[in-house]
Amino acid sequence: METAPRYSTLSLRAIVQLPGVATHMTLSLTDPFTNPTNAFEIMFTGLVRNQQIFSLEAGTSYLSATAPMAGAITSITGYAPTNGDTVKLWKTSTSNFVSYAYSSGSWGTNGVPMLSVGQGFVLISANARTWTNTWDTGVCGSP
């Protein structure tokens, strides 16, 4: 005599918080045949690093800030543009890159590139450079 296959359902609920702060998740595993529900809580913790070192060759670089903050590219990454630099940001709504050119000591018509949390960017520069960005970890949600 064959028995029907048993299936279990898994549901996951998460509360999202800034990195470096405890995150709570409730995980439930339910067997529809016997209907037990076993829920338990999982806590993930971590620290946000407080420094990022960028070391780039001339040409095209694909970068991202590791700080969980949004804002101007110059304040989030510590990047100091030089004449001839171009930053490109992906615009999801148009499925296209938006270019931000820096010349004569200022950003062009698109203004200063603004990054979202975790957003990557393309930097095209004729100059090799290294810079260090240090931020206050208290602002980033670390204990």
Properties at a glance:
143 residues, mainly beta, 2 domains, 1 helix, globular
Gyration radius from CA atoms, angstroms: 23 Å
Helix content: under 10%
Work out the count of structural domains.
2
Following the backbone from N to C, one meets helices and strands in this order, namely: EEEEEEHEEEEEE
Tally of DSSP helical segments: 1
- Given helix and strand content, the structural type is mainly beta
* Strand order in the largest sheet: 5-11-7-8-9
Q: How would the global form be characterised?
A: globular
How many beta-strand runs?
12
Briefly summarize what is shown.
It is built from 1 helix and 12 strands.
Description:
This protein has 143 residues and is mainly β. The protein has two domains: 9-44, no CATH class; 51-133. It is 3% helix and 46% strand. The chain has one helix at residues 73-77, and strands at 9-14, 23-30, 37-44, 51-56, 59-64, 71-72, 86-91, 96-103, 106-107, 114-115, 120-125, 129-134. It is globular, with a radius of gyration of 23 Å. The termini are far apart.
Helix and strand topology:
Layout: E1 9-14, E2 23-30, E3 37-44, E4 51-56, E5 59-64, E6 71-72, H1 73-77, E7 86-91, E8 96-103, E9 106-107, E10 114-115, E11 120-125, E12 129-134
Antiparallel strand pairs: 1-2, 2-3, 4-12, 5-11, 6-10, 7-8, 7-11, 8-9
